[in-house]
Each structure stands twice: as structure tokens, then as C-alpha cells.
Write a structure and sequence with these properties.
This protein has about 220 residues and is of the alpha/beta class. The chain is built from six helices and eleven strands. The chain has a six-stranded mixed sheet with strand order 2-1-3-4-6-7. It has a three-stranded antiparallel sheet with strand order 9-10-11. The termini are far apart.
Length: about 220
């Protein structure tokens, strides 16, 4: 049986991996940056280290000496870089891919083991759940088989990370652009789309697009 380590910082994906019986009470899960140390890995000698949701840079000494598997939600090499789901939606795509890849020094550039197509319909929380299920299904394959990754082919397209200021509605967008901007951030783990007027801040959720309007829930609060 393969010895596995999981580096993750997201409760939902952890729950999904438990539901799929990938994780159990004896699983070694690292949730903090300082827990991922070379000395721990030397002691545990894992066959595979999975990074289903990890926001810290991994030291080169680790991924050069252990098989580290990370995941990215674009059809690589298209869409390397930050906030991949949001960028794919803004570029007009209806679906994306979840890629499992070998971790190397350059972000999102390693050879790819598996690809899974994922719909980009619905709000972000729904999209993330589909992505996390796909990651779980891919991890099951890793557990069952010894996979050989394939180098990425083609010219890379790089996404710029969307910043907080980009979450605001400026007033010059189309209705479709406003709808997409609301739904692509509609999750507990991202700041919401917003409009600021004087001392007020309005945040938007649960958007629906009709022929001539965007309908959404709104939370109004004082700017901090």
C-alpha cells in the first residue's frame, strides 16, 4: 500500500476526500506551512505527497526529492497562473479542466498525469465542489496505479491573478459580465463582488441572468 501525505487548507475538499474514503483517521494531513518540513518527510518516507489546496510555495528540496502532486484548474499549458477559474469565466469558457501535475520550480508548468473536464456553470461554490470531486477521483487513480506524467505541449498562456479591486462593478460592464463577475466570486473563500457608494459597500450573491437584467441578493454595510 502506498504511503500518502496530504497538504491541504480547505475544509470542503477535506470532507469530500473523507467521503470518498481517501482520507481516514490514520491519514497524515498537513494544514500549516510550518508542518511541511524535510525532516518530517525523511522520517515518513511518503510515496506521494498531494497538494489539493495549498497556498504556500513548497521548498525545492522537497519537490526534487519526493513525488509531489499539485492540481490546477485550466487546460494547461493554457491558463497558468493565479485565479484560474475566474479567468476562465472572464475569457468566456463554459468548461475547464482539472489537471494533476508534477510539482516543479515553475508554477503550473510540470508534466501532467491526469485531466478531467469540469463545467463552469453556476456559482463558484458549486464549481469548486465539482473540482474537488474531480481531484478526489484523480487521487484514487494515483493510489491504484503508477502513473507517468506527460510534458505539457504548446505555447503557455499566463493568467494574471485577479486582485481585490478587480472585484468591484465599475458600471461599464455588460449584464453578462456583471453576472459572471458575481457568480465567479460567490463562495465563502473569496471576497464578494461589490459596489461602493459614498460610505456604503454593497456585496452581491446568488446572481441570476434574465433577458434584460441581473437579479442578485445584496448585503449593504458601512465601508470599513
Amino acid at each position: 500500500m502506498k504511503k500518502l501525505i496530504f497538504c491541504l487548507q480547505n475544509n470542503l475538499i477535506e470532507e469530500i476526500l473523507y467521503d470518498k474514503e481517501i482520507l481516514n483517521d490514520s491519514s497524515l494531513i498537513l494544514r500549516k506551512k510550518e508542518e511541511l518540513t524535510y525532516s518530517l518527510l525523511e522520517r515518513e518516507k511518503p510515496d506521494l505527497i498531494f497538494f489539493p489546496h495549498w497556498s504556500f510555495k513548497v521548498p525545492a528540496k522537497i519537490f526534487k526529492n519526493f513525488q509531489c502532486i499539485c492540481f490546477h484548474s485550466t487546460p494547461l499549458p493554457y491558463g497558468r497562473g493565479g485565479t484560474p477559474i475566474q479567468n476562465m469565466i472572464m475569457e468566456g469558457f463554459d468548461e475547464t479542466e482539472v489537471c494533476s501535475l508534477q510539482m516543479i520550480e515553475e508554477f503550473d508548468a510540470g508534466p501532467i498525469y491526469l485531466r478531467s473536464k469540469i463545467s463552469l456553470e453556476g456559482k463558484l461554490s458549486e464549481i469548486l465542489e465539482r473540482i474537488y470531486h474531480a481531484i478526489g477521483d484523480q487521487i484514487k487513480i494515483f493510489i491504484q496505479k503508477d502513473l507517468v506524467p506527460i510534458e505539457q505541449k504548446g505555447k503557455p498562456t499566463i493568467f494574471n491573478r485577479i486582485k481585490y479591486k478587480d472585484n468591484s462593478i465599475k458600471g461599464n460592464e455588460s449584464l453578462l459580465e456583471i453576472f459572471n463577475k458575481i457568480r465567479m466570486l460567490d463562495s465563502d473563500i473569496y471576497p464578494s463582488t461589490f459596489v461602493e457608494i459614498n460610505k456604503l459597500k454593497m456585496e452581491f450573491y446568488d446572481a441570476h441572468l434574465t433577458e434584460d437584467s441581473v437579479e442578485a441578493r445584496v448585503k449593504i454595510k458601512l465601508k470599513s
